[in-house]
Structure formats: structure tokens, C-alpha cells
Amino acid sequence: MSAIINRCIIGEFDITDAFSAVDELEESSYLAASAVQWKDKWLVEILSENPIKETELRSVFIDKPFKILENAPLKEENWLQKCFENLKPLVIGSFYVYGPHLKNKPRPANKIAIEIAAATAFGSGSHATTNRCLAACEAFFDSKKHKKILDLGCGSGILSIALAKLGAKNIFAYDNDDEAVRVTKENTVINKVSPYISAFKNDGTSFENDNYDLIVSNILAEPLISMSKAIFNSLNPGGLLILSGFSSDDNSVQDKFLSFGLKLIHRYDQNDWTTIVLEKDH
Fold this sequence. Notes:
The chain is of the alpha/beta class. The protein has 9 helices and 14 strands. β13 (263-270) and β14 (273-279) form a beta hairpin.
């Protein structure tokens, strides 16, 4: 597929406004929108099949000031092929995460292979939050202790798949997005772990109808805090909690869960994002 793609870069935002802007743009007719860090600020990149007009952007960002830093057509290329060429496999601890374009290529025999497409659900391993959640799963999952697992906000299902490949046999993957549930189910089949993972649409806090020995949730600070009591109540005594999706300068999630009496076991900080591991007393 070869076509002219128009790119517009707008800025400058703080991290919250940048991701809020992406959410607003995804409701519009653009091909894609993404937040990109630049020095101590964040920019938003928009891709479109049509020229991007400032008046259109102002109709989206009624109350959010911005300035256009770049707005021009990109060179005509096969963007799908270009995207695949730039998607290199990732080695994260014992995991080897690769895209479907590399499925017929040799893989390291001493690594745990996970095939994940960078597609319509979050979680390809490239973001710092997913990266450190994978590291935490490998470091802290114990097949003898963690018999029942919840992956809350499963996205692509990458964390559930990683845990299944580490030996977990009873994983419940929940997401409030139908597409994420569909993608997770598809990826569990591709990675041959579907017998161990059940994927469901999560309505509110429906997950708290059960209890788990390990809960992993890589979402955002606000939903983590709003669901914090339900998450805490769903964690069995002696259970482990792995949380991510918030910036390193935001301690609100950590403070909230510590207020329930959980113990902080480990904290990962990478590229200004944080992943925390907590334990519930017996």
C-alpha cells in the first residue's frame, strides 16, 4: 500500500494534557495520533490521509491551547512495510518479544518467545511500563504461591501470555475494551497458551467477585486509584500486586495502596515511568 500521508506535530503539553489530546484526537477521523516526549515537554503527532487544517484542530481542542510545530505531507512510501522494518524484536529479561513479520525467523533457544503485533490493543513490550511489568512478572511470579492470577486492563494480553509461559495455569484477563478482549484471545491462541487464560470484558469492578494470589495492572493512575479498594479486596492474604502506567513523579498510586497496609517490595523506574510491586500481609 503506497499513499501520501500528512503529518502534523503540535505542542507543547505536559504529560497529562498530551495523552488527553491523543484521546480526543482518536475520536476524530485521523489515521493515528500519538504522544511523543521532547526534552521536558510532550508533543502530539497526528497522521492523516488528508491535509490537516488548523481550524479542524481548534474544533477538537476548544479549551486546550496548542501551537503547530510542523504540518506537511510525508514522503510517499509503503508505510506498512516501513512500520514492520522498524519493529525490532525486544529482549526483556528471559523474554523475546517479536512481531508477526518475524515469525519465520530464528529465535534464541534460551529465551521465552512471545509473538505480539503492535496493533489495536496496548502492550507490545516497547513502552517502559510494559517492559518493567514483564521484568516484575519474571522476578516475582512464583508458580507454587500464585495459583490464581488477574491481569486487569490486559490490552494485547502480553502480561497474561508471559505469566502463562512462566508456568501460570489459571489467569483471568480483564479489559473494559471489547477490542482488547478480542486481541487478547487471538494472541493467546497464537502463543499456544489459550488453555490457561480466560479473557473477559470488565464492567466496572466485576473482577472483585473473585480473589487472586497475583494481580497485575498496567493502566493509568486515575483508574488504579478509583478501583484501589476493589483491587485490594480481591487480593488474597500473602498475595502480590504489580502496578504500572503512571509517571515517576506521581506517587499518588503508591501512596493510595500503601494506605491499605500493603508493603512495597520493589520499585522500577524507567524513562520517567514507574512500576511498583506490593505484597499483602497474611
